[in-house]
Amino acid sequence: MRMRRRIFSRIVTVAAAGAGLATAAAAQPTLRVASPDGKNVVTVSVRQGTLWYSLDRQGKPLLLPSRLGFEFRGAPPLGDSVRIADSARTTVDETWTQPWGEVAHVRDQHNELRVTAEETTSRHRRFVVAFRAFDDGVAFRYELPEQPGLADFEIMDERTEFTFASNARAWWIPSNKPRLDRSEFLYAASPLSTLDSIQTPVTLELGDGHTAVVIHEADLVDYPRMFLAGHGMENNSLRAALAPMADGVKARGRTPFETPWRTIQVASSVKELAPSLLGLKLNPPSKIANTSWIKPMKYVGIWWGMHMNIWTWSSGPKHGATTENAKRYIDFAAKNGFGGVLVEGWNVGWDGDWVANRNAFSFTKPYPDYDLPGVAAYAKQKGVKLIVHNETSGGLANYERQLDSAYTLYRSLGVDAIKTGYVTDTMGGNHSHYSQVAVRHHRKVIETAAKYGIMVDVHEPIHDTGERRTWPNMMSREGARGQEYNAWSSDGGNPPEHETILFFTRLLSGPMDFTPGIFDIQETRGAGRPKRLDEPRVRTTLAKQLALYVVLYSPVQMAADLIENYEGQPAFKFIKDVAVDWDTTRVIEGKIGDYVVVARRERNAQSWYVGAITDEEGRTFDVPLSFLTPGRKYVAEIYADGPGANWATNPLPVAISSKPVDSTSRLRMVLAPGGGQAVRIRPAQESSSTK
Ligand code: NOJ
Ligand code: CA
Predict the structure, then answer these.
(1) Cα–Cα dist 398/654, whole Å
(2) How far apart are alpha carbons 625 and 295 in whole angstroms?
């Protein structure tokens, strides 16, 4: 289905003249654009010389008039003293198939209104704001057209505001503390009116008890990342705040130029927030013609051993990335049907303070006890992908200098997947981790990797703004507190509610490489004894670790534990079976911070997987299986919290059972405190053996 209509309207001068209005201000039109279902309506107008937009939802104000515009270095602000000079409308309805994703098909149906604002002062600078109204939210972006009064520019601030009509409950992480430039924080819930400086996506539950709003951005290519700042005076307004470069400038550019989209996802219930596809709709179509080499996969790796302090990234007696270890992991992956093996700490540069010595990293030179070509050949022979790790510590120039030689080497060894990392507060000198410099770097890495036919998984990333539509080799990223915090975090690790919040916040921006699947919950093998609750430790039951494979979407999913911890574990079968690429996603139950139940159907197959997770409270769900194909017989393979299971005191019991089900069945899911449940529902005629 593909349909595009373009209707241009030149209303402004005509409307002003026709109405015979006396002043320029009074002559300004009020423009509106509505979503296809009519529920979301954006209004654009000029008031006292300033361009404003507002948003109504089902006839009620959601965003009050909110300011638009820019501040520059060396030039007056843009957005004061303007008039609407022109407008144009477009309607789009098109559907495409994602090469991989949480859904197979995405329908982009929206109405667009482009508004040209022009200064009424002597410079007559112009800017365009393109608004798009979708059924699941609205978005807008600025365009700075090529023009005599505006060529090279330095943006110091974006005046974009989001002024809510009423207070709301915000689920947020800070952008200004305790570490300047990370997204690895626990979420807090507080009134919108009290927010200071936060990251997006931020999820807001409105006072009506059901409407949910997510503010984020899409198609971030050559601009700083957007944060949001509260007004600090108890009002309900947030303002865009841009991550700075070392000299304080936010964005350098030259007209013609366009900013990323500012997105306002709106849903009638938090359950409707996922899957969140607005970001994909606002990115250009794939630039990779043949995507057949890009494959979702599960992987294991030489990773948790370092976080457990059993191995080191650096060279020495505890070095993890040895040829022998790598081959052992490859054997395990091949035997159990895993697609890949990640090896960290294989390359020269880890010795000493690897965060400070960022320029010491070589991305081609292995440590002497790691035979890179030999390991790569072994992986190839076993049908497993070697995932090569590139920690940069924010040494952007050092990495960029080596991109071509490194990727050439990897491809010559048959390697087509890498994991990158950016452990550092600042990037490439003193630029913010999320500055325009860093955003450009990320694009360069994604595009260079695409050129070489390499898939990318990024840790400490720029947040996801939907680039996987344009560059489907951009697979997954971290960008939140993942499993690693359960190894060493001084606050003890992620609390049981953490993943129930991630689902409704971070995961709405895109896939997350959370690295689930720790079976040694009390980290006995690392500590030499079960860890106490005042120590960093996994704070879930084992069944909940399984459920995370369904709940926290990622096209690359790690079985993160040491491979020996999976030996003799019947529950490991679920990790072997679970899909990583989905046709359909349905949120069945959900409350932010409390619980999530999700069902997903495997891509190009008839099996469904259900994942249910809860916070520290035990809960029971009664799930209708009406999503199954009517008349077809299925078998549900159930991995439930076992008798007496409890994340704190008794995390390990898993009760595994199976029973026949069909679309008229209901599944009673009993979750322990801090627990979960994972269910594979396969067509009855298919065998129960793992793929
Ligand atoms: C932090 C990353 O999140 C983690 O996955 C990686 O193991 C370490 N940095 C080392 O690069
Ligand atoms: Ca990290």
Answers:
(1) 47
(2) 29
Average pLDDT over residues 465-490: 98
Report the percent of the chain where pLDDT is more than 70: 94
Q: Among 185, 363, 459, say which to mutate for ligand 1: greatest number of ligand atoms within 8 Å of CB.
A: 459
Distance CA 676, CA 543 (A): 5
Residue carrying the six token digits 């950016």: 422
Mean pLDDT over residues 484-505, rounded? 97
Nearest to 537 by CA among 649, 421, 672: 649
Nearest ligand (C-alpha, residue 307): 1
Tell me the CB-side half-sphere exposure of residue 291, using CA atoms within 13 A. Answer: 18
- Distance CA(541)–CA(647), nearest Å, equals 5
pLDDT band of 8, cuts 50, 70, 90:
very low
Eight-state DSSP code of residue 491: T
172, pLDDT greater than 60: yes
Nearest to 545 by CA among 568, 570, 515, 523: 515
Residue type, 470: T
- Type of residue numbered 608: W
Distance CA 400, CA 440 (A): 11
Output Rg (C-alpha) for the chain, integer angstroms: 26
Mean pLDDT across 217-246: 93
State the closest ligand 1 atom to the C-alpha of 184, by its place in the atom list counted from 1.
3
Q: Residue 290: which of 510, 419, 107, 473 has the closest Cα?
A: 473
**Rounded to whole angstroms, how far apart are CA atoms 226 and 264?**
13
Ligand 1 atom 7: residue of nearest CA: 303
Distance, CA of 111 to CA of 93 (rounded, Å): 9
Coil, strand or helix at 551: helix
Q: What local confidence, expressed as pLDDT, does residue 425 receive?
A: 86
Among the bound ligands, the one closest to the CA of 308: 1
Residue 146, CA distances (Å) to 250, 256, 391 in order: 20, 5, 39
pLDDT digits (tens, 9 = 90+) for 585-602: 999 999 999 999 999 999
Average pLDDT over residues 441-460: 98
Average pLDDT of the residues in 153-166: 97
Please state, in angstroms and rounded to a whole number, the distance separating the CA atoms of residues 205 and 183. 21
